[in-house]
Amino acid sequence: MSAPVKRVEIKAQTRLRTLLKDYFLDLDAAARDSERRVAWCTSVGPCEILTAMGFDVFFPENHGAMLGARKVSHKHIPRAVGAGYCAESCSYMTSDIGAALANYSPLTEAYGIAGPPKPDLLAYSTNQCREVQDWWSFFGRRHDAMVVGVCPPAHLGEVTPEHVAFVRWQLMQIVEKIESRFNLKLDMDRLKEVVALSSRASALWRDVLDTAQSKPAPLTFFDGLIQMAPVIVMRGRQEAIDYYETLLEEMKERVRDSVGAVPKEQWRLYWEGMPVWPKIRELSGKFFDLNAVIAASTYCNSWAFEDYDGGDPLEWMAKTSIEIFINRDENTKQAFLCEMFDRFDIDGAIFHNARTCPNNTNSRFGMAQRLREARGMPVLVVDGDLSDGRFFSTAQSMTNIEAFIEQLEEGAR
Ligand code: SF4
User: What pLDDT does residue 349 have?
Assistant: First the structure.
């Protein structure tokens, strides 16, 4: 009998754990230091402005994902429902609000701190959804903190100079509000520095993800979900750059040595939509056992921005924030997916129909069907949710995934 195939651990992981621990402990210290200020920001929100103005930045969506990954969202969502939030609205939002009402945070078990740092300011962009506006408003009221936001034009096909100019103007509006409230002045040279750091981290992250074009792929979507933390929470900081340089070197070494994340890689898949955080381990194990690597995903690529050329930093922020996949129209999204399928030599695509996030679910208006017909590519739609495990049937989903791989096998015969 042959020995079971083992997963090869990513060595940089140890450093990542320390990096994240330091980040959260420092945020906790910032919230208790009267000389420092904390801002909360959406994941592709105006964090570079906040960093350049001296705020320490916390990202609540990351906290929502932690609640999901710890499989506790369903315990806290009912409290948010009791406070008037619909159980079928964003489960990052409802679990985060519910956990706050219960005075619970996974940060306590992970890092020994009470929970998210108390904000002085909350900043959002509705480039991903309007839910963040209501989510941030809840915490603005709770902490009696200022809430500012950008509401860019949505569902864009072509991104025009007029769109960019409009969003740049909105960014200037929030800068003026922050300057006035906190008696600060935005230093444009400092903003340029922060944007350059942000862009560098993003470019390195893109390079890391692109190594999965190799066969076997050195990392999977599931690795990406862990490894993406710095490009979200430390964008604009040197630490993120240092980390991704190390990780990229390790991935290149894997490519040179033909070390695959799924050693017996046979099928190369694409994941479209949100992760199923409470079932990451189970899903990762299932695909591993089926010799299928999820070589690319829309989600992990959401933080792979265009390079900054040293020009107007606000224009770069405006442009990158509206060019993201989630803010585009159906045709642009479909073209992006086709390009990704080609670049990563994908055999089949999985669409996650996330119950509480219609904004980042793309199987509801025929796209999966259109791609199946246009490319002759097998496509599977999995019903579930990003954080609320009650919307995901493990038995049914695993059966569907097995059948999907059998379909690929039959097609290859
Ligand atoms: S994009 Fe979806 S998961 Fe993210 S905050 Fe909006 S509704 Fe929630």
Answer: 98
